[in-house]
Design a protein that fits this description.
Helix content is about 35%, strand content about 15%. The chain has 11 helices and 9 strands. Helix 6 crosses helix 7.
Length: about 350
């Protein structure tokens, strides 16, 4: 029997990894991280809630020497309370630490620091004021998200960026309450909103917001609007069209094998009865019996016949198919005799 390691399908690129990390957020993550790197900002990276590793893989590409990526997730361990257990059973029943590690190691030589525990344990594992970027996606329950936001404030550097996932989804009202409560009452200052994530800081948002606005307005695959609400300037970014120019990332360490080109068919010496050779392209174009049947889509009548055959008892289906085969053979013989 094959092991999980043997049967695991390694992703060939980031978007082969399952998860809800949309192209616009891939662009925004990369922009914030690259801006920090260009300005010489140093600090660790943090992710609370990793699922199968899609966003963690991108974060790992932005680690520099001496920095650490810490990922905290239950990875199938027993949740701390009944509400969390119900949420995990509904949304993350297939999540395992092994799948995360295999996906991550498809793009990186070494794993991040992994804490397999509730997100509330993070302040015991990461030192205060050491992170430049934190992604919070561990729970949809208000009590947990409120605690995760508080932990991020303690762990981030003064101008660090925090990203809150699912702050506006209809099925995650607890995240929305915790996110906007932090904006209104806990000093969190929004920088940008995407369709799924809120990007914010406890530092001064104006410099980074202005730079982001300028960068987004130069793109033809993104639309930007600016609004005012409760004394906060809100930049809203939205993807235009179905395809975005994604950040360039190193390829998978397990690329898909290149397709082996098929060898051309050897020339044939076949000829017509008058001795004139048959052109190869003509021979290849001729149907080769049943296997070369037309690939046109079936007509409604044909679809109805096929469905009827599928629904009939097997013994009746076989009888019908034998009868139709006999009729085709009879028709073919009649046509041959008329030539």
């Amino acid at each position: 029997m094959a092991t999980a390691q043997e049967t695991h399908k390694y992703p060939g690129e980031l978007n082969d990894v399952p998860g809800w990390f949309w192209p616009l957020d891939q662009v925004l993550f990369s922009w914030f991280l690259e801006r920090q790197e260009q300005r010489g900002a140093r600090g660790d990276l943090l992710e609370l809630g990793a699922y199968l590793g899609k966003s963690a893989i991108l974060l790992g590409h932005h680690l520099r020497e001496g920095e650490t990526l810490t990922v905290c997730d239950l990875f199938g361990a027993e949740p701390p309370d009944a509400a969390n257990r119900a949420e995990a059973a509904q949304s993350y029943s297939s999540l395992t630490r092994q799948a995360f590690e295999q996906n991550y190691l498809s793009f990186h030589d070494t794993l991040p620091t992994i804490i397999q525990a509730p997100s509330s344990a993070i302040t015991d594992e990461v030192a205060p004021g050491t992170c430049r970027f934190a992604h919070i996606d561990a729970s949809h329950l208000y009590e947990h998200v409120e605690g995760d936001i508080g932990a991020a404030r303690d762990l981030l550097l003064p101008d660090g960026i925090v990203v809150l996932d699912d702050f506006r989804s209809e099925h995650t009202p607890g995240v929305a309450v915790a996110a906007w409560e932090a904006v209104l009452n806990r000093g969190l200052r929004p920088v940008c909103l995407s369709s799924q994530k809120l990007y914010a800081t406890w530092g001064d948002p104006e410099p980074v917001r202005e730079e982001l606005l300028a960068a987004l307005r130069e793109r033809d695959d993104c639309s930007v609007t600016v609004e005012q609400a409760a004394g906060h300037r809100l930049v809203r970014a939205r993807a235009k069209g179905k395809r975005m120019r994604l950040p360039s990332l190193p390829p998978s360490l397990h690329p898909a094998p290149a397709a082996v080109p098929s060898s051309p068919a050897p020339a044939s010496s076949a000829s017509r009865p008058d001795g004139v050779p048959v052109p190869e392209q003509t021979k290849q174009a001729r149907p080769a019996g049943r296997a070369a049947r037309s690939t046109r889509p079936p007509t409604p009548r044909e679809r109805t016949r096929r469905l009827a055959l599928d629904l009939l008892p097997p013994v009746v289906t076989r009888a019908v198919r034998r009868y139709r085969a006999a009729q085709r053979a009879k028709a073919s013989g009649t046509a041959q005799s008329r030539r």
